[in-house]
Amino acid sequence: MLQLEFGGQKYPIPAPEAVIGSGPGAAIVLAGAGVQPRHAILQSAADGSVSVRGLGAGAELSLNGVKVGTDPHPVLHGDKIKVAGIGIEGDVLPDRRF
Question: CA distances (Å), 83 to each of 5, 20, 72, 87, 91, in order?
């Protein structure tokens, strides 16, 4: 399992996915203008890689300043994610449990 770290908190990215949004079912809940209930999704693969994609036509999402649509984009250690203008700059870190 991987974790997204930002704002001093760590959020696990359960296999296979974690929704980012304002809704009660989101694993990472963000409040703010333009944040949809199911705004974006982080998906983890068996090989440990993580990707992010938007979940709708109006879901404003960027990765390292580049607009992301509904196609998955790989997220690497140190990448910056922005959801509806809200920066959740963080790192994707490998789980340290052995």
Answer: 15, 8, 15, 6, 15
| Residue range 45-61: mean pLDDT, rounded | 88
Decide if pLDDT at 6 tops 70.
no
Distance, CA of 67 to chain centre: 14
Cis peptide before 74 (omega within 30 of 0): no
The first and second tokens of residue 47, run together, are: 């090989």
- DSSP secondary structure letters along 3-42: EEEETTEEEEE-SSEEEEESSTT-SEE--STT--TT-EEE
Looking at the predicted structure, is the pLDDT value of residue 1 above 80?
no
As a whole number of angstroms, the distance between CA 12 and CA 66 comes to 24
Rounded-to-integer distance, Cα 4 and Cα 10, Å: 6
CB 57 within 8 A of CB 67: no
